[in-house]
Amino acid sequence: MKELRYERRLALMALMAALPAVAVAGVLLWIGPYESKTKWTVMLVIALFWLGFVLALNERVVRPLQTFSNLISALREGDYSFRARGARRDDALGEVAREVNALGEMLREQRLGALEATALLRKVMEEIDVAIFAVDSKAHLLWLNRAAEKLLGLPAARMLGADAAELGLAECFAGPAARTVELAFPGGSGRWGLRRSTFREGGLPHQLLVLSDLSRPLREEERQAWQRLIRVLGHELNNSLAPIKSVAESLEKILRRPARAADWEEDMRHGLGVIGSRAEALSRFMNAYSNLARLPPPQFRSVEVGPWVRRVVGLETRLPVGLRPGPEVVIRADGDQLEQLLINIVRNAVDAALETGGGVSVTWSRNGAFLMVSVEDEGPGLPNTANLFVPFFTTKPSGSGIGLVLSRQIAEAHGGALVLQNRAEARGCKALLKLPLREPHELA
User: Fold this and answer.
1) Other C-beta atoms within 10 Å of 37: how many?
2) Above 70 in pLDDT, residue 414?
3) Any residues with CB less than 8 A from the CB of 88 and at least 6 apart, and which?
4) pTM, to two decimals
């Protein structure tokens, strides 16, 4: 049997609710001392009143429900301009109307905020100087910004829906999701920073590709690095060539004299000695440059931190180096390179401490997935940290200017870092070496 509609069930319930009263009234009417015509007239009035009451009740209950249904349908379709009337606090139906109106207002504000955020996001995506592409699961182009359109050299209308391979982007959607690549496009070529990620829209997977041009910033960084290197190289070469030239000119004048002094041979030997010492300094300088350029990749093996630090501290004999032992841990690293790194740091700390008569202390600790080695001195501190890691820059008369550079290269090759800074709580400098407890590729 087919179930009755809600309206009919409601009318039937109203009829059944009044049926006993109508039946009792009818019985009393028929057994009373009334004429037949009067009985039928009264019964007709009762029946009409009964039917009218049922219809009025049905209207009062069903019509508000239909109104709320229309309101909810409008909200579902995104029309938030409609409001329910009779939203009062003193009855149940009014409370329902108030809640529906509040829901509509909240949805309107949320939609307005979403539209504004979407408009801002689209504006940023259009104006940003990074090429952004969105493709579907079949690598068909769904969206691109203005920078991407300029990069490919075609209008967006002609590219939307095209396959990524047809647009020269097939290589970008293969391989690691984050890397640096060499690419050539109609709108530019060079080195690009590639980032690829996935997102879902409509329940379907899509991919987002971001290409940032690294050529210009890399060229600027390279230019600045060459300027710093040439400045330091020129300074070092002039320091050696200037005395060589001066001594050579003096020796030439001695040889040209028709009458030479009695000690001219001694002057010649002294001058040649100066030339030889400066030439030897230049040779050391070039050897240092060669070492800097040919640093081999680290050979990872197990290295016990405690014995490594104690061994390096024991090599320093100019003054006692304080040692505060940390946890006994084992790391994967190149022991020879780490030993050279720590020797450079401790030697620099001792050099600084000898200037002021202070001390040097070394300790290590564990910080999450990293090992932290700290070397503190009580020297004069760092007057200028800008050139600390510039190759061949040194403030020492006999320094090569590559110790710190090599040390930082070794630390970074191990996936770590080396930082030098003045101590905040006391005089002197603090060198902080950060090394991963696992091999760098294991942390990725």
Assistant:
1) 8
2) yes
3) 94, 95, 97, 98
4) 0.43
